């Protein structure tokens, strides 16, 4: 066992379980998963969050506070000093024979996380306690590891990390689904000619929480070539589906001098890296998810890590769907967006693997995507994966100012608030491309969780902003 420097006077249980020899005089701290009292001995299954497994603490009746400690309830917090010795019990290599137990926090009798399975729906009602449950411990350790992996991937590939604004006056998607940010009196806001006078607001204009850092990211890419953003985004979309949340995290790389093909290459390398990282670094937690959350999860991830990523155009995808020997709930029509059932059919039954669909009709895509020479489609791509559908969406950006202005007029977007965005097409603009990956969508795929609320520490959804 290698030495670990801590600032809390404890040894992580994960490290102890990997020990290769007995140890003496060490201290562990954590929370009791179970407390069992037998004849002349008691046991605590202790967990500190460093891993899914618990360490068995053996309590000898000679302990000065044996009676108190052996009657602790589930969830109690203790600090235990003792010796790590080989365990005679099956299924575990080590146990800790306690010589000193300090009670740091007791629990009331109504502690809700008893030793039984609880539904994910119930756990959302106690989101302040669910991190102590096995499933959520696994999910949030994977979340932490993959957040690190995101930064590591881009650092290894020479990208610069940019922190884009949370408060913005620009609606990147043009859908008007922004949370408003204002200091004006909600009951009696100042008005001019019957309209709210935002000139008297804190920022002197109408502002909201960002739905994307992409537009600012594009500006930085025209100065630093390759950049990425990774931060919270917000969308006031009144949707209660299992795939939507009001607050979520987005990963948005942007590359100067890049076209759609380069964008697809980056997306493939990025996804493959993250999945491989999870398989290598989160094996214990993924094994738990494979057993308890999604059967076949490990096989799915291993297959994607080794898969060939195919590419077809949107038009080719529509033709394949029209030839499908099955009915779809949503009709397949050129010019309409693909639905999850269409995406899953393509990835699971036609290509049996991940798939890029490119060159979508411009009417169903955002104003900033580069128009193709056919004047009907844009240089956009969606990366589809089996069981989920769309996981990544991106495009080559429109670098031609006249074409961008025309597209903004067609979409009814006022160019004035986006003059700074237009300026990067006037002064040294260049071809550039990027994509967005919703971090929670990725986590759902990697952990097997079916609801986005279960991969966010404290989910924000319509009607719910608790904790």
Summary keywords:
467 residues; alpha+beta; OB fold (Dihydrolipoamide Acetyltransferase, E2P); BirA Bifunctional Protein, domain 2; 2 domains; 5-stranded mixed β-barrel; 18 strands
Number of helices: 13
Q: Taking all residues together, what is the mean pLDDT?
A: 94
CATH topology term of the largest domain: BirA Bifunctional Protein, domain 2
Distance between the termini: 39 Å
Q: From the alpha-carbon coordinates, what is the Rg to the nearest angstrom?
A: 27 Å
Summarize the structure in words:
The two termini are 39 Å apart. This protein has 13 helices and 18 strands. It has helices spanning 13-17, 66-69, 120-125, 134-156, 214-224, 260-281, 283-292, 297-306, 314-322, 340-350, 401-410, 419-426, 439-447, and strands spanning 23-38, 41-47, 55-59, 77-86, 94-105, 160-161, 167-168, 180-181, 191-192, 195-196, 207-209, 226-234, 247-256, 310-313, 355-361, 377-385, 389-396, 432-438. A hairpin with a 7-residue loop joins strand 4 and strand 5 (94-105). The model has no long low-confidence stretch (mean pLDDT 94). The chain folds into two domains: 13-105, OB fold (Dihydrolipoamide Acetyltransferase, E2P); 130-175 and 211-454, BirA Bifunctional Protein, domain 2 (2-Layer Sandwich). Helices cover 30% and strands 25% of the residues. With 467 residues, it is an alpha+beta fold.
In short:
By secondary structure, the protein is α+β, with helices and mostly antiparallel strands. The protein has helices at 13-17, 66-69, 120-125, 134-156, 214-224, 260-281, 283-292, 297-306, 314-322, 340-350, 401-410, 419-426, 439-447; strands at residues 23-38, 41-47, 55-59, 77-86, 94-105, 160-161, 167-168, 180-181, 191-192, 195-196, 207-209, 226-234, 247-256, 310-313, 355-361, 377-385, 389-396, 432-438. It starts with 12 loop residues before the first helix and ends in a 20-residue tail after the last helix.
